[in-house]
Amino acid sequence: MSELRELYQELILDHGKNPRNFGAVEDADYRADGHNPLCGDRITVYVKAHEGIVDEIRFDGAGCAISTASASMMTQALKGKTVDECKAIFETFHQLLTAEREPEEVAETLGKLQVFSGVREFPIRVKCATLAWHTFRAALDREGEAVTTE
Hints:
Elements: H1 3-17, E1 30-36, E2 41-50, E3 53-62, H2 65-78, H3 83-97, H4 103-110, H5 123-141, E4 147-148
Parallel strand pairs: 1-4
Antiparallel strand pairs: 1-2, 2-3
Helix pairs in contact: 1-2, 2-5, 3-4, 3-5
């Protein structure tokens, strides 16, 4: 088993069982709900930003290990970044999972998030891994409607 695959399994299990930044933010500046009807994942993403910087980002909901781990790692990766940096990281992450970019190409930008490259081998699981990200993007864009992976 490759090192990346082992790291992927360790990180998914760790963040799936012990999600970071889990819980609601009552006075969030941005908020959106997301749902993956294929596996039942439901998530709400909360963001507090000041002067274009993400000061706090949290999530709550219930989902599979991949969905929960992705949301947990997303919150860690985006906290402290500018909104524009967050949008760029979203695009890079999405490209990684849809096989438009290789892990080596995005290592510096995504750091530990590159371990999700293994998900692209299972197209049905890509929606699990990207749900939190699409929900985050909808929150920033203030779309108002629940995000769905369908």
